[in-house]
């Protein structure tokens, strides 16, 4: 079997139910999710040692879930019975966020991405995830989509932010606050 098919040489690609331009909003959405998945793989490779065993397990699960997100967006026609992304995945992310947030110190100002290499990599995941979410919002404005994909990506970016901070905490590093910021976060 050849990896190349030559079927995309004219700027078209296959989706579930047809062919579209390679710059179609649908392709932009799931393509950005694919890009995010690559960055998650990079973060996973940096999550070394016993202190990040739980993070490795979750990042691997997220990689599978991101493939599910892309598959759900690849449908030209809405077919809810075939969707793989459901509200339970969003709920799981919220549980993980709440769990890790207990390890993190209170936050009052914006923080600069960085610190431990894993934390820096997770901040890249966060920003690419936000872009993927924007692409999904754009797609959802012109066609029906699985709204749970949009919700999942929204929560996933929060997860990346929290777990990046946890990576710094577990590595003995302090987040660097954006010093020109006013206090913008409160704990109630």
Automatic annotation (TrEMBL):
<comment type="subunit">
    <text>Homotrimer.</text>
</comment>
<keyword id="KW-0808">Transferase</keyword>
<dbReference type="GO" id="GO:0008817">
    <property type="term" value="F:corrinoid adenosyltransferase activity"/>
</dbReference>
<protein>
    <recommendedName>
        <fullName>Corrinoid adenosyltransferase</fullName>
        <ecNumber>2.5.1.17</ecNumber>
    </recommendedName>
</protein>
<dbReference type="GO" id="GO:0009236">
    <property type="term" value="P:cobalamin biosynthetic process"/>
</dbReference>
<dbReference type="InterPro" id="IPR029499">
    <property type="entry name" value="PduO-typ"/>
</dbReference>
<keyword id="KW-0169">Cobalamin biosynthesis</keyword>
<comment type="pathway">
    <text>Cofactor biosynthesis; adenosylcobalamin biosynthesis; adenosylcobalamin from cob(II)yrinate a,c-diamide: step 2/7.</text>
</comment>
<keyword id="KW-0067">ATP-binding</keyword>
<dbReference type="GO" id="GO:0005524">
    <property type="term" value="F:ATP binding"/>
</dbReference>
<dbReference type="InterPro" id="IPR016030">
    <property type="entry name" value="CblAdoTrfase-like"/>
</dbReference>
<feature type="domain" description="Cobalamin adenosyltransferase-like">
    <location>
        <begin position="3"/>
        <end position="167"/>
    </location>
</feature>
<comment type="similarity">
    <text>Belongs to the Cob(I)alamin adenosyltransferase family.</text>
</comment>
<keyword id="KW-0547">Nucleotide-binding</keyword>
<dbReference type="Pfam" id="PF01923">
    <property type="entry name" value="Cob_adeno_trans"/>
</dbReference>
<dbReference type="InterPro" id="IPR036451">
    <property type="entry name" value="CblAdoTrfase-like_sf"/>
</dbReference>
